[in-house]
Structures are given as structure tokens and as C-alpha cells.
Amino acid sequence: MQMAWFKREKRDYEREFLDSVFIHWEALMRYATRLTGNEAQAEDVVQESLAKAFKAFPKLREKTNHRAWAFTIVRNTFLSRARKQNREQPLEDAARVVDLSAGPELRLVRPDDGYKHGFEDAVLEALTALPEAQRTAVMLCDVEGLSYDEIAQVLGCPVGTVRSRIHHARRRLRETLASYATNRGYGNVGHLR
User: Fold this and answer.
1) 134 and 169 in contact (C-beta within 8 Å)?
2) Do 21 and 57 contact (CB within 8 A), yes or no?
3) Residue 122 burial by CB count (10 A; 0-12/13-18/19+): exposed, middle or buried?
4) Is 4 found in the same domain as 74?
5) Are residues 191 and 138 in the same domain?
6) Distances (CA, A) of 12 to 17, 41, 58, 159
7) Which residues neighbour 143 within 8 Å (Cβ) at sequence distance 6 or greater?
8) CA atoms within 13 A on the CB side of 132
9) pLDDT in tens, 110-119
């Protein structure tokens, strides 16, 4: 009789995981694709992240924000993989090692790789020109729809820092994309400073 109870509980656990964490799969894929610049690598990062999340799911506090928690796992998985990859570089490739102190880079890639997700080249270039901390914060807010509190949790920084990063990123984007927006018929956006 006890075995039937265990099976029911496990099914409930799996359903709860699907309903509260796995439901964010598409957003996690977009985020991972922007981190890695490559859909195949992004799939690996998300798959590994969801496996970690599933394993840790029963240990979560009752009021955990599952969406922010999942984004945090994706970010940490990406950073761990990048650090590991840099440690495993052959000596002849040492000149190509990425400096992680600058953070993950947003890479411009070809339109056929599924990375652009509706961004035109001018917008991608403007995003790429942002410092990583600002770019990540504005992407999580304006593209993925996370709240400032959720972003603070994902990035491990105070909400005030998130607000500042987003404010500065948006200001830089407005300045950089003002003529682009005017040429596309969005009116004069210079007054929005």
C-alpha cells in the first residue's frame, strides 16, 4: 500500500515541476541562446539546467519564484560550462580563451541559426555594444519579461543595481537607435532622454 502512495506523490511532483518550471522552457531557450550564441549549445545548457532543477525541486522552499530560479540555474550552468571550457583549452588555442571577467558575450550570428528572434542587425549591434551587466539586465526585463526582483535573484545583486543597469542600458539604446527608430517611422525619439 505504501508503494502506491509513493507513485502518486512522484507523479504529483513531476506535474508540479512541469507546471511551474518546465513551462518556461521557451524563455529559457531564448536566454540560453543569447548567452551561448548557438542554439545547439543553448539546448545543452537548458537540458542540463532542467535536469539540475528537477533534482533540486523537492528541496525548494514553498514560496520560491520558479521562473527566476530556473533562469538562475541556466545562467550558472552557462558560466560553469564556459569556465570549464576555458580550463580545458589546448595550449595552441590559449590566445582564443574568453575573458570571463567581462562576462558572457552576446554574439552576432547569421540569421539562419535561429538566434535573432526578430531583432534586426542594428538592434543586435546596439545590444552587443552594451556592457554585459546592462545587456543581461535589459534582456531579462524587456525581452523575457522578468520583474526587477526576479532579475536581482537571477543576477545575484540588489534590486537597485538592476534598476540602474536597466536605466543606463535603455538610455544608451535610445541614443544609439534614435536615427534607426526615426527612419522606421517611430517618430523623433530624441526627446525621450
Assistant:
1) yes
2) yes
3) middle
4) yes
5) yes
6) 9, 31, 11, 34
7) 30
8) 13
9) 333 333 445 5
pLDDT, averaged in runs of 10, over the chain (193 residues): 47 85 92 86 94 90 89 91 72 40 41 46 82 89 91 93 95 88 70 50
The distance from CA 150 to its chain's CA centroid, rounded to whole angstroms, is 12
**What distance lies between CA 158 and its chain's CA centroid?**
18
Which has the closest alpha carbon to 78: 114, 44, 101, 110?
Answer: 44
pLDDT of residue 51: 93
* Domain residue limits at 138: 119-193
Question: What's the domain count of the chain?
Answer: 2
Joined together, the cell numbers standing for residue 12 give: 504529483
Written as nine digits, the cell of 127 is: 545590444
CA 58 to chain CA mean position, Å: 24
